[in-house]
Amino acid sequence: MFTGIVEELGEVTAVETLDDACRFRLRGPVVTEGAKHGDSIAVNGVCLTVVDHEGDEFTADVMAETLNRSSLGALEAGSRVNLERPMAVGDRLGGHIVQGHVDGTGEILERKPSENWEIVKISLPADLTRYVVEKGSITVDGISLTVVDAGPDHFTVSLIPTTLDLTTLGHKQPGDPVNLEVDVIAKYVERMLGDRAQGATR
């Protein structure tokens, strides 16, 4: 379980392409401190398992399912990535509940800079539209953000200087893909209401 508060902007140092998977080597001095085999680290919002750890680098295997459902397949050596370790019991929940299970990908459509913040417009897959509401929470590349405006096929977020400086959203441009995870609470509510409705019609 994560909170969507990125701990550091890491870097992909190597990508090994396998038959139906990829093995990434990533550098992140903060998230690798005390890391061990089997630990979880969120990479651009995708929960990955540490395979090996040496110095300030770790490796993680990414299966075809994850590559197909996320933007990790577009990463190459030198790519910057958002990194976050799982929250510990008793930690402050600074963002919102993030599972590290990407629901789909969007695309940066537009950036509108202002003096103290920047508005970013992102495309939204049709099957995720019902989960995204104005002032609700959404995870973009592992970053917990508040939805400013929710349209039929897009949404906007407002980014403060800290987010622009310390995450991938400070560098991504129109056309670049991003990983999206909607608020898991919305999905549970939908399921419970659907089950209740089905029970009432029996």
Automatic annotation (TrEMBL):
<feature type="repeat" description="Lumazine-binding">
    <location>
        <begin position="97"/>
        <end position="193"/>
    </location>
</feature>
<keyword id="KW-0677">Repeat</keyword>
<dbReference type="InterPro" id="IPR001783">
    <property type="entry name" value="Lumazine-bd"/>
</dbReference>
<dbReference type="Pfam" id="PF00677">
    <property type="entry name" value="Lum_binding"/>
</dbReference>
<dbReference type="GO" id="GO:0004746">
    <property type="term" value="F:riboflavin synthase activity"/>
</dbReference>
<keyword id="KW-0808">Transferase</keyword>
<feature type="domain" description="Lumazine-binding">
    <location>
        <begin position="1"/>
        <end position="96"/>
    </location>
</feature>
<comment type="function">
    <text>Catalyzes the dismutation of two molecules of 6,7-dimethyl-8-ribityllumazine, resulting in the formation of riboflavin and 5-amino-6-(D-ribitylamino)uracil.</text>
</comment>
<dbReference type="InterPro" id="IPR017938">
    <property type="entry name" value="Riboflavin_synthase-like_b-brl"/>
</dbReference>
<feature type="domain" description="Lumazine-binding">
    <location>
        <begin position="97"/>
        <end position="193"/>
    </location>
</feature>
<dbReference type="InterPro" id="IPR026017">
    <property type="entry name" value="Lumazine-bd_dom"/>
</dbReference>
<protein>
    <recommendedName>
        <fullName>Riboflavin synthase</fullName>
        <ecNumber>2.5.1.9</ecNumber>
    </recommendedName>
</protein>
<keyword id="KW-0686">Riboflavin biosynthesis</keyword>
<feature type="repeat" description="Lumazine-binding">
    <location>
        <begin position="1"/>
        <end position="96"/>
    </location>
</feature>
<comment type="pathway">
    <text>Cofactor biosynthesis; riboflavin biosynthesis; riboflavin from 2-hydroxy-3-oxobutyl phosphate and 5-amino-6-(D-ribitylamino)uracil: step 2/2.</text>
</comment>
<dbReference type="InterPro" id="IPR023366">
    <property type="entry name" value="ATP_synth_asu-like_sf"/>
</dbReference>
